[in-house]
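quick q for whoever's on today - can somebody do inverse folding on this one?? i tried earlier but teh output was garbage lol. tokens:
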């Protein structure tokens, strides 16, 4: 009987060792799960930050494209003004400077025309904002259309200004 008790004690001791090993393995597994969850959360955070960075890059690219479009518009405006000025002065007139005492050509525009130009400017700003937000072809086309409409006002006022400048020259070429 003692040998059976000794064997039973040995089996209990082995079972206790195995239970201890199982508990230790379960603790290690639990720690590994926590570490994995932390790493997964860190990965998700990095993915979110990358997505936000990509959105910011896209917005900055849109802003850059918008600014380049505006710069292009201003360059066209300046080129148009430059051409208007050079054609006026390249004619065979003896042009002497004349100093105007009033504000530039905007004084000559009637109030209705100024309101239309302001409405076109506001429509362009709204269309650009919508194009930035939606980023679809329709809103981009609407922004381009609004820009062309506003540009037509600017070019129309330049043409009016150029024609008024040439209308002030009499048949002898003096003002």
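ok took a stab at it. sequence:
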């Amino acid at each position: 009987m003692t040998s059976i008790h000794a064997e039973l004690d040995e089996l209990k001791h082995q079972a206790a060792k195995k239970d201890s090993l199982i508990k230790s393995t379960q603790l290690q597994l639990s720690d590994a799960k926590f570490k994995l969850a932390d790493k997964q959360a860190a990965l998700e955070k990095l993915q979110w930050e990358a997505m936000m960075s990509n959105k910011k890059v896209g917005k900055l690219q849109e802003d850059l494209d918008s600014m380049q479009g505006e710069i292009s518009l201003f360059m066209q405006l300046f080129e148009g003004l430059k051409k208007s000025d050079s054609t006026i002065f390249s004619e065979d007139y003896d042009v002497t400077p004349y100093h105007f005492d009033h504000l530039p050509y905007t004084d000559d525009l009637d109030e209705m025309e100024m309101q239309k130009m302001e409405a076109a400017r506001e429509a362009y700003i709204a269309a650009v904002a919508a194009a930035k937000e939606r980023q679809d072809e329709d809103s981009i086309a609407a922004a381009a259309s609004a820009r062309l409409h506003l540009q037509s006002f600017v070019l129309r006022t330049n043409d009016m200004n150029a024609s008024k400048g040439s209308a002030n020259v009499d048949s002898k070429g003096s003002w």
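fwiw The CA atoms of residues 61 and 95 lie 47 Å apart. also The chain has three helices and no strands. so keep that in mind when u check it
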